[in-house]
């Protein structure tokens, strides 16, 4: 889990359209065992920090992958759409000490499916996409 990932989670869950669907079920790295769906997994794929002749700057860019889990393809797609329609891509402000300078939805949706596991008979449907988060570190 990264600190910017946690700040991104905090901001994303502040949108009523997302929290109405998942509550607080947005987890770093992996679903908890027997997680209630729908839920979101997030993880920081990479972070690039800006440098100048004076050295390391506070501006950074993180690629954060979001995986939207649900029990149907339609529900997973609806969660993905709800995230995209929050307006987070227009957000400029401070959350958890990080100054957000912009968010881009960098990739199109990738549709996946997981077979039943841990004795459960339900398939899990996943819509996965990347966000580029531009921010200033505290």
- The CATH architecture comes to 2-Layer Sandwich
By DSSP, the count of extended strands is 7
CATH topology: Alpha-Beta Plaits
Strand content: 35-45%
Supply the helix-strand structural class.
alpha+beta
CATH uppermost class: Alpha Beta
Helix content: 10-25%
H and E string? HHEEEHEEEE
Low-confidence parts: none
Tally of separate helices: 3
Number of domains: 1
- Shape field: elongated
Give the overall pLDDT as a whole number: 91
Distance between the termini: 17 Å
- The gyration radius over C-alpha positions equals 16 Å
* The CATH homologous superfamily: Phage minor tail protein U
Largest sheet: 7 strands, mixed
Give keywords.
alpha+beta, 3 helices, 22% helix
How is this structure best described in words?
This protein has 3 helices and 7 strands. With 138 residues, it is of the alpha+beta class. The chain has one domain: 2-Layer Sandwich (Alpha-Beta Plaits), CATH 3.30.70. Strands 1, 2, 3, 4, 5, 6 and 7 form a 7-stranded mixed β-sheet that branches. The longest helix is centred in the middle third of the chain and has 12 residues, at 73-84.
């Amino acid at each position: 889990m990264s600190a910017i990932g946690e700040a991104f989670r905090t901001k994303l869950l502040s949108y009523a359209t997302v929290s109405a669907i998942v509550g607080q079920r947005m987890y770093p790295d992996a679903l908890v065992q027997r997680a209630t769906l729908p839920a979101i997994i997030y993880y920081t794929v990479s972070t690039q920090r800006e440098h100048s002749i004076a050295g390391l700057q506070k501006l950074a860019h993180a690629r954060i992958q979001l995986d939207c889990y649900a029990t149907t393809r339609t529900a997973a797609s609806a969660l993905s759409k709800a995230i995209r329609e929050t307006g987070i891509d227009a957000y400029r402000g401070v959350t958890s000490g990080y100054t957000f300078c912009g968010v881009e939805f960098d990739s199109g949706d990738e549709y996946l499916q997981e077979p039943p596991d841990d004795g459960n008979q339900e398939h899990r449907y996943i819509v996965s996409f990347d966000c580029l988060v531009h921010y200033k570190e505290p």
